[in-house]
Design goal:
Blueprint lengths: L2 H20 L13 H16 L4 E2 L3 H11 L9 E4 L8 E4 L6 E3 L8 E6 L7 H14 L5 E6 L6 H17 L2 H16 L8 H13 L3
Parallel strand pairs: 5-6
Antiparallel strand pairs: 1-4, 2-3, 4-5
Helix pairs in contact: 1-2, 4-5, 5-7, 6-7
């Protein structure tokens, strides 16, 4: 790491330290020293939270689990999760919403629409975004309505991110099984005939998912 980059990281760390101190969160894990990309991500999340101050913010893992499982009656196995394996003598630990991206509730107390967010990191591609959508899709299917915000520091990924979201989430949730099956066969036919240029990355991702969904 060069000197200028080190100074930038230290400067961002001081900013975060001051912010966490003011909200009595000085000793949480995010307060530790991290690489500059991680710090930039935390500041991006904070900016998202501050710009949506009029909404209720679900901050912690227990708050999110309680909202979806207790209030909306969503079975816990539909929540995005990750298994952490400890020592050989200890049991694996299941954690939920490990991405920690900001999540908000709408103003309608009777039917609060959830707003999910995704903060694009420093990586050049959208592979992590695809994995994120795939992890959340089972939960999306349990909700009557929700909002999704894609947040990034640059504009270069927005069109592609929208295409992926439409293909992986909006279209499957908004269409019936017969339409999805028809699309799957159209994509598979184009692939079998060698018409690769007619297929988008979203088509190929949909094909891979549909192969499992329509197996047999």
């Amino acid at each position: 790491m060069n000197i200028s980059r080190c100074k930038e990281r230290n400067g961002l760390s001081l900013v975060l330290a001051s912010l966490y101190r003011q909200i009595d969160r000085e000793n949480i894990g995010n307060r530790r020293r991290h690489e500059i990309e991680y710090i930039q991500g935390l500041i991006g999340m904070l900016d998202s939270v501050l710009s949506s101050a009029q909404w209720k913010y679900l901050e912690t893992e227990p708050e999110k689990i309680s909202f979806f499982c207790d209030q909306l009656q969503v079975p816990i196995n539909f929540l995005p999760s990750k298994i952490y394996h400890g020592q050989r003598t200890s049991q694996p630990t299941v954690r939920y919403f490990v991405d920690r991206f900001p999540m908000f509730l709408g103003s309608d107390a009777c039917s609060p629409a959830v707003t999910f967010t995704y903060l694009q990191g420093a990586e050049a591609g959208l592979r992590e975004f695809v994995h994120h959508l795939e992890a959340y899709l089972p939960l999306f299917r349990q909700l009557c309505e929700f909002r999704f915000l894609y947040l990034a520091r640059v504009d270069s990924h927005f069109d592609k991110a929208k295409e992926l979201f439409d293909s992986l989430v909006a279209i499957p949730l908004g269409s019936d099984a017969s339409a999805d099956l028809s699309r799957y066969f159209q994509i598979r036919k184009a692939w079998d005939l060698g018409r690769y240029t007619s297929l988008t990355e979203a088509d190929l991702i949909f094909r891979n998912q549909a192969k499992t969904r329509f197996a047999g």
